[in-house]
Write a structure and sequence with these properties.
Elements (H helix, E strand, L loop, with lengths): L14 E4 L9 H9 L8 E4 L3 E2 L12 E5 L6 H10 L2 E6 L2 E3 L3 H9 L12 H4 L6 H6 L9 E5 L5 E5 L6 E3 L5 H16 L2 E7 L16 H16 L3 E4 L5 H7 L5 E4 L2 H11 L3 H7 L6 E3 L7 E2 L16 H14 L3 H5 L11 E2 L3 H4 L4 H13 L3 E5 H4 L6 H7 L12 H8 L2 H15 L6 E4 L6 E8 L2 E8 L4 E8 L2 E7 L9
Parallel strand pairs: 1-2, 1-16, 2-5, 5-10, 10-11, 11-12, 12-13, 13-16
Antiparallel strand pairs: 3-4, 6-9, 7-8, 14-15, 17-18, 18-19, 19-20, 20-21
Length: 504
Amino acid sequence: MCPAPFSSSVKNQVQLITYVDRLGGSNLAALHHLLTGPLASLFGGVHLLPFFHAIDGADAGFDPIDHTRVDPRLGNWDDVKALSRDVPVMADLIVNHMSDESPQFQDFSRRGAASPYETLFLTRDSVFPDGATEEELRAISRPHRGLPFTERLLANGEKRTLWTTFTPRQIDINVLSISGAAYLRSILATFQRGGVTMIRLDAAGFAIKRAGTSCFMIPETYTFIADLAAQARALGIEVLVEIHGHHRDQIEIAHHVDRVYDFALPPLVLHALFNRNSWGLKAWLAISPRNCLTVLDTHDGIGIADIGADRAGRLGLIPPTELDALVETIHVNSGGQSREATGAAAHNLDLDQVNCTYYDALGRNDRAYLTARAIQFFVPGVPQIYYAGLLVGTNDVALLARTKVGRDINRHFYTPSEVGAALTRPVVQALFDLIRFRNCHPAFAGEFELGNCADHKLILTWRVGPHWATLTVDLEKQTALVEHSENGAGCKTFAIELPVSAVG
């Protein structure tokens, strides 16, 4: 029997994160069928990446025209609610911006100061009414090069300098204005009616802008996140915050919200496997937030800034030379494909990431990949697995070539036949066995222990009452072994290899 879920809305079981139309189907009904059919019982919840109108804008749905409307090509809110009855659903609340094609921005463009949405959109002048010094402009944090402003000629003939953190088509909103607060409340209410029980606050770290600051994770940002999280909880919705940045910021924000991502984990696992040394990973696990969702791969690539030093001079989790070597090893393992998709080599919103599937980052080594997943499943937090990682997918260089968007290398559109073929692969079957073990062994409802061992090893243990489970990784020998109790007694053992056996 599997353990009972947490008292929160997130079950202590592996979660799936996927686009609705990229995992073997074209709409919500098809995904529902997959999750209750071939993938039944594998997941304690599903995070649906933006399914709002429209899913094919400037940033694959993260630039909503109407955040309260399901893209009709995918279905409607009844379909979301139907899915939520079988699998708890998480959705993105994109707090920082909306599309320039949104009705609100179009009204503002036509009517200017006469529009009820005039205060909804941030301009440079609204943050710097007396102008900005060069020093103030240099201090602004942004996920890619350049200043976060776009000069725009509005439909009414006015020229405005709009705040655009991500792309010129994604217009930042003033979340502290009356209209901004009402906009966010309307989305929360729609989510509640649609059966959404958890939200991810997307790009929340950039939501508050103040002159003379970095405009990223400033004190007012924490207050805003806490207030918005309280509104969500009042509606029975749990809150996950997405923050890419220095690891100390992750630790701090974890005190203010229900869940944070462990974005330091993906590169640190690679660092341990590449160098056959666990010191960096163990140092992080000793201080990492426990109320986290763990990931190895995401739709945004493998983050690098999350374990590096920051502009304020705070040290990273590993030295810069080793971080550079880690990135170069990914490029070599992927045959140079990740290099073609990363940084200035393609159209990228974020230069502090490597665009590559996790499987390719590991040189398509099945045992290394399964070992990485075993580590993810044994560290503190609720595991979340990206749809391409679930199918142990490889880089989609054809999609990258068509779109020239770096992130698309890890955003393959799987056809039903491709999903069916993937499900028969031994490495995928072995991963499913690990997922079932993580979902069902009672020890994972208990306490985590980080074993004291030499740096060429990693020992992770969970205990509750008579139940226990231990993962021992020998990085030098490249072996991984799981030992665990069965029915509260005895000991069973299985190696992380193909196939995984004796998973009880």
